[in-house]
Each structure stands twice: as C-alpha cells, then as structure tokens.
Request: fold
Amino acid sequence: MDFTKILYWVSTLIMCAIFAFSAGMYFTQYDMVTGFFESLGYPTYLVYPLAIAKVLGIIAILSRQSKVLKEWAYAGFFFDAVLATAAHSDAGHGLGLSVIAIIAVVVSRIMDDKMFR
Reply:
C-alpha cells in the first residue's frame, strides 16, 4: 500500500469513528445530549435527525455508491465539526475531538480525491 492509501484509510476511519461515537451518544444518552444542546442554545429536536444524518454520512462515504451523496456527507461532516468546535469553545469545553474531526474530514476528502479521480 502506498502512503496515499494509508493516509486515506487512517483519516477516514478516524473521521467515521468520531461521527459514529457522536451518533451513538445521541441515540443512547439522549437526556445528557439534550442537556448539552439546551445549554448551548440549540433546539433539542435536532438530536435524532443529526444522529441519523451522521450514520447515513458514514454509509455514503464508505459505500462509495454515489459521488453526490459522498460529497454532501463530507460537507455535512465538515460543517458539523466546525460548528461543534465553535459551540464547545463558546461553552468553555475542550476542543480536542472536534478539532481532530475537522482535520480528519479535510485529510480524508483530499486523499479521496487523489485516490478515486
């Protein structure tokens, strides 16, 4: 395997793991997550749709069935991670995982373009 493939798969798996973890928390720890959403000023009705969108985004990226859906998934993950970073920063929380998510999304997308043109 060459460096591009390794970098693609490492960044993609990190990205997918972060968003799968997030979606899992949204489904299994609903009360805690809605508390965070309320404290950050976000509507709680977004919790389940965001969790479903994250799962579908992971499927779109890993299945590679549709270029359009894959691009929308990358865009959605990028904006979700950027907005999560801003929200956590505003709330005074740690930024580690959301910054790692941004980096993983960007690297995965760039390497995806290099590998699958």
